[in-house]
C-alpha cells in the first residue's frame, strides 16, 4: 500500500527524479485459509479422520505459518499425517481433548494437507464441534477465512448377532428341553436397545428362563406355549455376549421322531448388520418309558376248592407315554377263572368262569406315571392234591421295546394245603398183661396228616379220662402242655402240631389191687381244626396200633397180685410208689 500524505509524494518525486535507478519498496502479503472435511455420520467407538487443508493464495509466501486444531471434548487423539516442512507437537495416542499444533518456516503459495485421526468412545452420541485456525507472521489481507468450524455427528452403531442351540438331542418325550440363546454385540458401539425373542415350538410348554443381569424377560405361563422375549434394560458393551437359558417341557405323549425346530431373533434400532440377527436349532424326539408290574395274593389259606384273589398293578415310570400296552396272565392248571375287575380304558378278554386259560388286557396308550390296578378272582380246583405248587405269573409289554425289561413280569407263589387231620395212636408199654399194684405207662402219638398245622386253638386238643381201676400218677409231652389232674383222673394236652408232624404224650398210672383177672380199656379223645378256620370243629378217639381194628381202645389184662408182703415191705413199696409218682409229676 502506498502512503497518501504530501510528504510522501515529495519523497517519491525526489526519488523518481534524483534516483531513477531505485526500486520502490513494497510490503509482502499472503492470504491463507483453512478448511476441514469429515465424513458424516460417525459410528460411536470407531476411528475417523479430520482432513485439514491449509491454502496460501499469495501473492507472497506466508512466513512462520501455524495450524491449531483442538479435538472436541470427549474425543481422543490417535495419529496424524503432516504435510512436508511442517512439524507438530507430540501427543500420546488416546489422549482425550488434545490440541494439535503444527508449524513451518514458510508456506508457499499453494496447499498443504493434514490428516488427524481421532476416536470416539463406544458410548458417545450427539454432535462434537471444534474450530481449526491458521496464522502467519506475513500480513493476511483476508483474515476472515483463517478459521473453520467443524461439527461431527456421532451415533450408536452396533452389530448384534444371535446363536441358538438345544439339548439334549434326541430329547425324550416327557422330559425338559433346554434352549441356549447367545446374543453378542459385535460393536463398534455400546448397545443400548436390544430385544431377544424365542418362540417355543409347539407342543412344548414353558418351564423357566435364566437371563443375565441387565435383561428383563416376558414369558408364557408355566405349562403354556408361547414366546420368551427378553429386553436389554441397561447396556451391553462391544464384544460382550449375553446368554439365556430357556427350559421347556416336551409332552410325554409326543411321538418318536418328531422334529422340534425353533428360531431365535435379536433386534435393535442401532443394528447395522441384520443378516446375523437370527439363528435356528432343532432336535428330534424319542420315546423312553419303563413299564413295571407287581402281583400279590391276598393272604389266606390255599385249599382245594378255595377262592383266591390276586392284585395286579401295572405302572409306567415314564418319562414318556407307552403305546400299545398289554397285560397278560396265564392261569396255571389248578386255578379256575372267576372274575376280573379292570381299570377304565383297558379292554380285557378272559376265560369262561370255571375254566382255565389266558387273561389279556390292553390299552392304546399308558401315560407316564400312570398306575393301573386289576383285581383277579380265581378258584382252586377241588381235586388239587395237597402240596401242589401254584405259581401265577403276570407280564406287561408295549408295542415298542421297554427301556427296562427286568420288571416286566411278576409271580405270586403258593402251595395248595390240606387242613389238619389229627389221629392218635395209644399204646401201653410192657405188653398186654400187667399185675395188680404195678405202674403202667401209656404213650400217645398225635399225628397230623394234613399239610397245614394244627394250631393251639381254644379248648383242649387231647382229653384222656382214665378208668377208675387206675390211679393217675402224672403226664408229660414232647411239646405243648400236658396237665395231669389226679383228682379227676384226667390228662389234658394243649398245643400245636405242625403239618405232617407229630407230638408224643406219656401218661403214668397205678393199677389198683383187687382188679386181677379184669381187662382195663381206655381211649383218649382228640379235637382238631378240620376246615382251617381257627376253631377245633372235629374230634376223634385214639386207636390201639397193636390191633388191626380201627379206632379201638387200648387194653391190657390185670394179673393176680404178688404174694403177701410183710408190713415192712408194704411200707417200703408205698414209699417207692409215692416217690415214683412225685418224680413223674415233676418231670
Please, could you describe this protein's structure?
- It is built from 2 helices and 43 strands.
- By secondary structure, it is mostly beta strands.
- It has a 6-stranded mixed beta sheet with strand order 2-12-11-5-8-7, with no helix packed on it.
- Mean pLDDT is 91; it is low at 1-25 and 564-571.
Topology:
Elements: H1 6-18, E1 30-37, E2 42-43, E3 47-59, E4 62-63, E5 66-70, E6 76-81, E7 87-88, E8 99-103, E9 106-107, E10 110-119, E11 126-135, E12 147-155, E13 160-167, E14 171-172, E15 176-185, E16 195-199, E17 205-210, E18 215-218, E19 227-232, E20 241-249, E21 259-267, E22 278-286, E23 291-297, E24 307-316, E25 322-330, E26 335-341, E27 347-349, E28 358-366, E29 371-380, E30 389-397, E31 409-415, E32 422-428, E33 433-435, E34 439-448, E35 462-465, E36 470-477, E37 481-485, E38 490-494, E39 502-511, E40 519-522, E41 525-528, E42 538-541, E43 554-559, H2 567-586
Parallel strand pairs: 2-12, 14-22, 33-43
Antiparallel strand pairs: 1-3, 3-10, 4-9, 5-8, 5-11, 6-10, 7-8, 11-12, 13-15, 15-20, 16-19, 16-21, 17-20, 18-19, 21-22, 23-24, 24-29, 25-28, 25-30, 26-29, 27-28, 30-31, 32-34, 34-39, 35-38, 35-41, 36-39, 37-38, 40-43, 41-42
Amino acid at each position: 500500500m502506498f502512503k497518501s500524505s504530501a510528504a510522501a509524494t515529495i519523497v517519491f518525486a525526489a526519488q523518481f527524479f534524483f534516483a531513477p535507478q531505485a526500486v520502490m519498496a513494497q510490503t509482502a502479503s499472503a492470504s491463507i485459509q483453512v478448511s476441514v472435511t469429515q465424513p458424516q455420520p460417525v459410528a460411536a467407538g470407531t476411528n475417523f479422520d479430520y482432513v485439514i487443508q491449509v491454502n496460501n493464495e499469495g501473492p507472497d509466501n506466508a512466513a512462520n505459518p501455524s495450524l491449531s486444531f483442538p479435538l472436541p471434548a470427549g474425543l481422543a487423539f490417535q495419529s496424524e499425517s503432516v504435510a512436508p516442512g511442517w512439524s507438530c507437537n507430540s501427543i500420546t495416542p488416546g489422549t482425550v481433548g488434545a490440541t494439535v499444533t503444527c508449524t513451518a518456516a514458510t508456506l508457499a503459495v499453494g496447499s498443504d494437507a493434514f490428516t488427524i485421526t481421532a476416536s470416539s468412545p463406544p458410548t458417545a452420541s450427539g454432535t462434537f464441534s471444534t474450530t481449526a485456525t491458521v496464522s502467519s507472521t506475513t500480513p493476511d489481507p483476508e483474515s476472515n477465512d483463517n478459521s473453520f468450524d467443524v461439527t461431527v455427528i456421532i451415533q450408536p452403531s452396533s452389530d448384534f448377532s444371535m446363536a441358538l442351540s438345544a439339548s439334549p438331542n434326541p430329547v425324550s418325550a416327557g422330559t425338559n428341553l433346554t434352549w441356549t440363546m447367545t446374543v453378542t454385540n459385535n460393536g463398534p458401539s455400546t448397545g443400548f436397545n436390544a430385544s431377544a425373542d424365542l418362540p417355543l415350538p409347539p407342543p412344548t410348554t414353558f418351564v423357566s428362563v435364566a437371563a443375565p443381569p441387565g435383561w428383563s424377560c416376558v414369558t408364557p405361563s408355566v405349562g403354556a406355549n408361547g414366546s420368551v422375549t427378553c429386553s436389554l434394560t441397561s447396556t451391553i458393551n462391544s464384544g460382550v455376549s449375553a446368554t439365556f437359558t430357556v427350559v421347556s417341557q416336551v409332552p410325554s405323549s409326543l411321538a418318536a421322531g418328531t422334529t422340534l425346530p425353533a428360531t431365535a431373533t435379536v433386534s435393535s434400532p442401532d443394528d447395522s448388520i441384520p443378516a446375523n440377527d437370527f439363528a435356528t436349532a432343532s432336535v428330534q424326539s424319542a420315546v423312553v418309558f419303563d413299564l413295571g408290574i407287581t402281583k400279590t395274593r391276598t393272604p389266606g389259606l390255599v385249599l382245594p376248592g378255595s377262592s383266591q384273589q390276586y392284585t395286579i398293578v401295572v405302572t409306567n415310570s415314564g418319562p414318556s407315554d407307552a403305546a400299545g400296552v398289554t397285560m397278560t396272565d396265564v392261569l396255571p392248571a389248578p386255578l379256575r377263572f372267576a372274575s376280573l375287575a379292570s381299570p377304565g380304558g383297558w379292554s380285557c378278554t378272559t376265560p369262561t368262569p370255571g375254566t382255565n386259560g389266558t387273561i389279556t388286557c390292553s390299552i392304546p396308550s399308558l401315560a407316564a406315571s400312570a398306575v393301573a390296578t386289576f383285581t383277579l378272582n380265581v378258584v382252586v380246583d377241588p381235586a388239587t392234591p395237597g402240596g401242589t405248587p401254584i405259581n401265577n405269573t403276570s407280564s406287561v409289554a408295549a408295542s415298542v421295546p421297554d427301556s427296562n425289561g427286568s420288571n416286566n413280569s411278576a409271580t405270586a407263589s403258593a402251595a395248595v394245603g390240606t387242613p389238619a387231620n389229627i389221629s392218635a395212636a395209644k399204646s401201653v408199654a410192657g405188653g398186654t398183661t400187667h399185675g395188680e399194684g404195678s405202674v403202667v405207662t401209656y404213650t400217645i402219638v398225635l399225628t397230623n396228616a394234613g399239610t397245614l398245622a394244627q394250631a393251639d386253638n381254644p379248648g383242649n386238643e387231647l382229653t384222656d379220662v382214665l378208668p377208675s381201676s387206675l390211679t393217675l400218677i402224672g403226664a408229660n409231652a414232647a411239646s405243648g402242655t400236658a396237665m395231669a389232674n389226679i383228682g379227676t383222673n384226667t390228662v389234658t394236652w394243649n398245643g400245636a402240631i405242625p403239618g405232617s408232624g407229630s407230638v408224643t404224650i406219656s401218661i403214668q398210672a397205678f393199677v389198683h389191687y383187687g382188679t386181677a383177672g379184669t381187662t382195663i380199656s381206655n381211649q383218649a379223645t382228640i379235637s382238631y381244626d378240620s376246615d382251617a378256620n381257627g376253631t377245633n370243629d372235629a374230634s376223634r378217639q385214639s386207636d390201639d396200633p397193636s390191633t388191626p381194628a380201627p379206632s379201638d381202645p387200648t387194653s391190657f389184662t390185670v394179673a393176680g397180685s404178688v404174694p403177701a408182703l410183710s408190713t415192712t415191705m408194704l411200707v417200703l413199696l408205698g414209699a417207692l410208689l409215692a416217690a415214683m409218682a412225685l418224680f413223674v409229676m415233676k418231670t
